[in-house]
Specification:
By secondary structure, the chain is an alpha/beta fold. It contains eight helices and ten strands.
């Protein structure tokens, strides 16, 4: 497993600094002529190492991709993880991962007590990915640019952002992986965005556990998480999204954690490989 790390400024958000972690595909150094599809992921600190993960558990992405290679699987992807914004007791992460403002965030999650609202910087954060980070990644690494070879993924608010990005910039992304999407944050706006920008040629992965919550004191959170994901699935189905372009996984008993996402990532990446042009070159 080879991970390269660098710091970058976000000019679209006042020059904030952010750590970017790039997981090189197995054999990247040896196959000098090979180019790779790219998967951009949120919360990069949680993806590759328990030492950097917020709660000491990572997604085991490197381990998963290495295991596939050891078994002789020739499919490859370059994974770019961007750390989240930890400022303001984690509220800045919510700001960057949603283009829409939640005007009463403290009513949804008790840890937001004292904050009147959250969200509203998602468009600027997406512009950073599109105009600053992606050109740099394409210059620095042997990538296959273009939406047919580029995906975006994340969990919770990162899932909401990934769905937003997929439909906002179809010129950049061909698929998204929305793990345990925090649609509750701005569900009406998210659904409207998908409806207004729907495309039948995009691929969407959704998953959800039946014990998800963002606040243990709110008894209805597990049912909200589950129903919101099923509503997104049902809407995409109603629009005629082809069965091979939509995968929705309901993980019985799974909670809202890196352990759950690590367990489901192998299924996601196997599905994603079928929608990333160049994965098998």
């Amino acid at each position: 497993m080879t991970i390269e790390t660098f710091e970058i400024s976000i000019p679209q958000l006042g020059g904030r600094k952010r750590t970017v972690r790039v997981l090189l595909p197995p054999g990247y150094g040896e196959e000098q002529e090979r180019r790779y599809p790219v998967l951009y992921m949120q919360d990069g600190h949680n993806l590759f190492s328990p030492e950097t993960a917020t709660f000491g558990k990572h997604w085991e992405i490197g381990e998963t991709l290495d295991a596939l290679a050891v078994r002789g699987d020739r499919r490859r992807v370059l994974v770019v993880g961007v750390d989240c914004n930890h400022d303001r007791q984690g509220m800045s992460r919510l700001d960057e991962y949603s283009p829409w403002v939640n005007p009463s965030i403290s009513l949804d999650i008790s840890r937001a007590r004292g904050f009147e609202s959250a969200g509203g910087e998602g468009a600027q954060y997406l512009a950073f990915l599109a105009d600053t980070l992606m050109p740099l990644i394409n210059q620095k690494y042997r990538t296959l640019p273009g939406p047919a070879s580029t995906g975006i993924a994340g969990s919770s608010m990162g899932g909401l952002f990934s769905l937003y990005a997929l439909y906002e910039r179809p010129d950049l992304f061909g698929l998204c992986g929305a793990f345990s999407t925090a649609a509750w944050f701005a569900k009406e706006a998210l659904m409207q965005h998908i409806a207004q920008n729907y495309r039948a040629d995009r691929a969407v992965y959704l998953d959800i556990g039946t014990a998800e919550t963002s606040d243990d004191s709110k008894a209805d959170f597990p049912s909200r998480y589950l129903q919101d994901t099923l509503d997104i699935r049902d809407y995409l189905t109603s629009r005629g999204l082809a069965q091979e372009r939509l995968l929705c996984v309901v993980d019985k008993g799974a909670n809202h954690s890196e352990q759950s996402w690590a367990r489901r990532f192998p299924g996601f990446i196997n599905w994603a490989f079928g929608h990333l042009a160049g994965a098998e070159l």
